[in-house]
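Bump. Still looking for Glycogen debranching N-terminal domain-containing protein structure tokens.
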Amino acid sequence: MGASNTVRILDGNTFVVSEDTGDIEATPSEPTGLFSIDTRFLSKWVLTVNGERLNALSYDDLQYYEARFFLVPGMATHYVDAKLSVIRERMVGGSFREQLTILNHDEKAVDLEIRMDAGSDFADLFQVKDEIVNKKGELYTEVEADRLRLGYRRGNFKRETVITSSVPARYDRNGFAWTIHLEPNEQWDSNIDVQTFAVGPGGRDLRMGLRAHGTERLALQNDLEEWIAKAPKVNSQHGRVSATYRRSLIDLAALRFSPLSLGGQTLPAAGLPWFMTMFGRDSILTCLQVLPFAPDLSKTTLRILGALQGTRFDDFRDEDPGRILHEMRYGETSAFEEQPHSPYYGSVDATPLFVVLLDEYEKWSGDVALVKELERECRAALKWIDDYADLVGNGYIWYERRNTDTGLENQCWKDSWDSISYSDGTLPPFPRATCEVQGYAYDAKMRAARLARQFWDDPGYADQLEREAAELKARFNRDWWVEEGEFYALGLDPDGRQMDVLSSNIGHLLWSGIVDDDRAGKIAAHLVGPRLFSGWGVRTLAEGEVRYNPIGYHNGTIWPFDNSFIAWGLRRYGFAEEAATIASGILDAATYFDGRLPEAFGGYQRELTKFPVEYPTACSPQAWSTGTPLLLIRTMLGLEPHEGHLSADPRLPVGMGRIEVLDIPGRWGRVDAFARGRLELHKLGD
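Sorry for the wait, here they are.
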């Protein structure tokens, strides 16, 4: 089922995906239903009146956590004569609640049979994604006088859905019903409450922060208002920027969730529907994108990732000492080790990026206490880079999964099976090393050197890290440069052979600072050249490469997050015009998605399409796509923390007009920034 005819509401790890009537009829392969903690708690939720399905007039996307559906019985041709209307208003807030309203517009009384068919397959999200239908445990249904209890148990793993109604209903094994009598112009209402319960290994209660009855909407509304009020205000002459910024802020609020061990503190989940959980790489990159706007997410993310850092060698989880996790899951397949995500450590970029985020966060916040608190974890991450990630012994970060059954083959951000190839289209052997990860390692060492010198009282370690970084930079520029094409190879194979394809990864190299200055101009020219830049954004793989496909997941699509870091990298090396070109294309594209950038969209040339073509199964909202406009605003204004102050060097795209960002938080207090060719920067109250 495509995104166009589904309605999605969410609150962190809990979300509902339904048809535009509000009905849910899930198949094993469709991510429709009520989900929480990686489990589907409702797979059937179908409303009928007198045995007849309802048709949608419209629906309102009220807030990220609530929606309202306006329905009538009968086919579309009968809408004009409808004597009955039905309103379904629903929300999630840890639990799921639906208010049902029936209105009689007829001149005579009516007797109605109102029924909700309800059921759950309790599918693990991985089972839905992989279209696995068999359940190894026991499904059960308990019909009680005042409630319907749907359940699943497998050993001490237990999930339950408990359904109650404010108006007494008749419950049976397949749902519940009311028989009602409505006088002319009379209205009938019932509140349906759906509570989800989970017990994990050892009998531990895994409920995710359920709120008391009747308080969800107020709590969520107040929380959203407080979230928006705390964030900087963005005003622009070009309406797309401020509208897209607000959409991003709201989506970022929706994607916040609190892991079980955090007691209410939140970090960004990766994306709906498949990735509503903690991801090392995604959470870190999102935090980097939104640091000037929502700095608290970084602190939470760093703490939880540090607490769950690898401590041992575990082939099943691809775990090493010092390695930062890739993904954490709470569903059945993880609980019974049918998947390794409890947590799983199979990424090679999250570990250096952890160090990068810690340094960047301190530069903005001045939070020295956190830098000292995470010194041990930071040193362990750097030790992982040197001692455990160099599988070939030549000073680079490599990857090869040890869990050959369920581990990830490609452990970089382009993690689909065919994303890493030679120029002839063939796939290289393992282990593999990709270019951007070497840049992250260089950046991590340079940043950690600053932390060691300024905060850990270890200048000798700082000198060592800077020396190692300089050696890595020289070695990298020797081994990865493709002379004929004048760009950096996507990767190396274990024999040192280059994967000599032109890819978007080279933009991340600019961001990391590993590119030699005399080569940066060539890289910038490629990034805005016709093979990589479509007019909407930079493609993941250049047009003309054997595996190029404008709707290939990592082989030609445009990823907004990718473009935001490319723009940041271009600014680092002084290519402000090129960065503005990319920012303009992505922000233009956002307007066609109502301000909500999807995970990816087609790499077609802009002249060929009047609008960007969405990738068929793109996550939306997705955290690092949500963070993209925020980083692009920072990039266009040239906002950088510098020696305890906020510096600015704006370069806006042609036609952008004036942009102002008010109340930017940081160690400097709060400052305002204005840009239109020139920029003023002053403390509030000055």
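Residues 331 and 433 are 31 Å apart (CA to CA).

Edit: fixed formatting.
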